[in-house]
Amino acid sequence: MFASLKRLFEDKCPVCSKRLIACHDSDWSAKACPDGHYKVENYGALGVQIVYDPSNPSGTPNITD
């Protein structure tokens, strides 16, 4: 039961479904696929999230406020 509940909160790569690896600093945090398929950067003080996703057809990062 606990294992299935824990899986709901784990971030996974949308390409290979591997668990994302997190790193953080006082100003930002990032989660990335170990194989380099996907990366999310959060800048809390600015309220900005940048998603690097190679499956994005435009080829540019998605930036959300």
Overview of the structural elements:
The protein is mainly β. The protein has one domain (2-64). The chain has one helix at 2-8; strands at 21-24, 29-32, 39-43, 48-52, 62-64. A 5-stranded antiparallel β-sheet has the order 1-2-3-4-5, with no helix packed on it. Strand 1 (21-24) and strand 2 (29-32) form a beta hairpin. The protein is globular, with a radius of gyration of 13 Å. The mean pLDDT is 83.
Give me the strand/helix succession: HEEEEE
> How many discrete domains?
1
Spans of 5+ residues with little confidence (pLDDT < 50)?
A: none
Task: Count the DSSP helices.
Answer: 1
- Secondary-structure content class: mainly beta
Q: What would the average pLDDT be, to the nearest integer?
A: 83
Helix content: 10-25%
How many whole angstroms does the radius of gyration measure?
13 Å
Order of strands side by side in the largest beta sheet? 1-2-3-4-5
